[in-house]
């Protein structure tokens, strides 16, 4: 317990922490320990022999230390209670998961208890790194605890200390990898050896979870359970103590989840590999950028699938958290977002800039090759693709000074008949090729008006998806790509009009990484799915490219410029 004052070198306002015996420290959490024993399903004797020593060693290492200075679990024994609660919920989560799913039944029977114990240890030690990076502990004589060498309880006993004091390091950064160095002081080597028997995956997954290093080639179920439990426990503590401690720092613990989600997307989602068509990420000579808020919707969908508590819903909140954490950087004028013009876009897009490309791309294979161009551009900049015809009768006049060129094809100009036979007048000097191929057309003079086309020459309408923002981002992107194929030749169309709307084959959705069941639910949620019958299934069968094909019918109201009468009947819907 805390005393009312402390004498000596420390002021009375810092009473410090009592150097209690370790059994007394652990006794303060008897209720939670009892719940852990019931969750393990072990007899009292077996629990006391196999699990209780782990709890005593953990209590001996963290003693009465708070988890944070003024945020979640900031009271005495905060780190002890945080570890025990996360360990309990992580262990509880193992009941709904199958580990080693590719192994035989007999092998799973042998490995299952080891997986459960490893998951419990992962939750127990998930915040050990804070002891090594965020605080300094001293006793009454001013001696400093060597936290890499000995547990706090043993050090206090060896110095016959009655109280100890905590000083928080200013501007400490989260270094989860340090937790691995404290692990031998909490978990005996014999326990790790038991976990490693008859397998080569449990201990690596445990260390990956504690250190915060993802396993890119294998799904780490253990870490997923620990991350979900930690988010739940921290969120509940912040909500419970909001009135008692003033204004808690909601969301300050979510940086790791947001960064982890972006890394998982960068390593596993084709739409996040930099510089690909329709990619969220673009790597240029001036850094790595993520299109925003499209990338935020992907992160939110991934974390919602993980069922993490307290994850921000708004891209603006997510942006503020990552800017404050130093993951994203602002513009020199203080603006939170940037504008970029990747090669495949015609107009500038809003984006965020990462402080370092390694935050997202470290360990991702194959490595991304940066573009040789600068991506940053002014807001509203447009890329022009108009080319000068090869049969132009004369070179274009030189624009007045200060005017930038549109994007031209220098080869066409240089090889045109007029350029080969007629030299330019002496008063006109051709522009150098570097100016001719300039990317941006900010101040180009408008071209002369062209006569209106005849009805027979009128261009077909440009079709574009205009779905509600609440539609699942992955489904929206896939449908947008499918709708855009209708603007090209008929042989390239990935969908076809029917009487009720636009028929989208299920195979086209799967080709773009969207499961048909997810697409059907997402469209139904926003009222854009046209059912075949009132009580019938969501799918219909239609004649698509001469073959009976199963697909979904999307309501035409979400497609700008869509008129079934303007198309030849490419699909026939079966009744």
From TrEMBL:
Biased composition (Pro residues): 392-402, 422-433, 444-455
Residue numbers spanned by region Disordered: 383-460
Signal peptide coordinates: none
Domain spans labelled Uncharacterised: 25-335
InterPro entries named among the record's database cross-references: Unchr_helicase_relaxase_TraI (IPR011119)
Name used for this protein in its record: TraI domain-containing protein
């Amino acid at each position: 317990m805390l005393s009312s004052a402390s004498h000596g070198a420390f002021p009375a306002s810092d009473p410090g922490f009592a150097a209690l015996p370790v059994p007394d420290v652990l006794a303060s959490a008897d209720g939670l320990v009892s719940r852990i024993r019931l969750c393990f399903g072990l007899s009292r004797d077996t629990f006391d022999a196999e699990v209780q020593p782990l709890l005593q060693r953990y209590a001996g290492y963290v003693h009465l230390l708070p988890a944070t200075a003024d945020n979640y679990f900031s009271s005495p024994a905060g780190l002890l209670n945080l570890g025990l609660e996360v360990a309990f919920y992580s262990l509880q989560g193992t009941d709904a998961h199958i580990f080693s799913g590719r192994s035989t039944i007999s092998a799973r029977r042998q490995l299952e208890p080891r997986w459960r114990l490893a998951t419990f240890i992962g939750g127990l030690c998930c915040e050990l790194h804070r002891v090594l990076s965020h605080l300094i502990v001293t006793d009454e004589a001013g001696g400093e605890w060597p936290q890499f060498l000995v547990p706090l309880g043993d050090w206090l006993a060896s110095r016959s200390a009655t109280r100890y004091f905590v000083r928080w390091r200013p501007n400490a950064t989260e270094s989860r990898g340090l937790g691995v160095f404290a692990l031998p002081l909490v978990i005996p080597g014999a326990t790790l050896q038991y976990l490693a028997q008859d397998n080569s995956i449990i201990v690596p997954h445990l260390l990956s979870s504690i250190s915060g290093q993802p396993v890119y080639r294998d799904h780490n179920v253990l870490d997923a359970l620990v991350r979900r439990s930690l988010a739940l426990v921290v969120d509940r503590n912040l909500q419970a103590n909001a009135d008692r401690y003033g204004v808690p720092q909601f969301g300050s613990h979510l940086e790791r989840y947001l960064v982890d989600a972006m890394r998982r997307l960068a390593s596993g989602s084709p739409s996040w590999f930099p510089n690909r068509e329709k990619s969220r990420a673009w790597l240029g000579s001036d850094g790595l950028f993520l299109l925003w808020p499209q990338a935020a919707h992907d992160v939110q969908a991934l974390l919602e699938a993980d069922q993490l508590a307290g994850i921000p819903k708004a891209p603006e909140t997510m942006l503020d958290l990552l800017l404050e954490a130093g993951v994203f950087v602002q513009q020199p004028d203080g603006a939170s977002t940037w504008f970029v013009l990747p090669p495949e876009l015609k107009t500038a897009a809003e984006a965020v800039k990462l402080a370092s490309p390694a935050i997202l791309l470290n360990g991702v294979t194959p490595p991304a090759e940066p573009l040789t161009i600068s991506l940053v551009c002014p807001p509203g900049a447009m890329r022009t693709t108009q080319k000068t015809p090869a049969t132009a009768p004369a070179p274009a006049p030189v624009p007045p000074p200060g005017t930038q060129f549109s994007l031209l094809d220098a080869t066409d100009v240089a090889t045109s008949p007029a350029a080969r036979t007629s030299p330019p007048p002496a008063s006109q000097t051709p522009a150098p090729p570097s100016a001719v191929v300039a990317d941006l057309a900010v101040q180009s003079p408008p071209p002369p008006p062209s006569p209106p086309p005849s009805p027979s020459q009128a261009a077909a309408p440009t079709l574009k998806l205009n779905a509600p923002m609440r539609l699942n981002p992955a489904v929206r992107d896939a449908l947008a790509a499918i709708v855009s194929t209708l603007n090209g030749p008929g042989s390239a169309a990935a969908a076809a009009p029917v009487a009720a709307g636009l028929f989208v084959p299920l195979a086209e959705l799967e080709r773009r990484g969207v499961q048909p069941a997810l697409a059907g639910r997402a469209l139904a949620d926003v009222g854009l799915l046209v059912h075949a019958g009132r009580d019938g299934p969501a799918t219909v069968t239609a004649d698509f490219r001469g073959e009976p094909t199963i697909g979904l019918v999307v309501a035409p109201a979400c497609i700008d410029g869509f008129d079934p009468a303007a198309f030849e009947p490419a699909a026939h819907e079966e009744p």
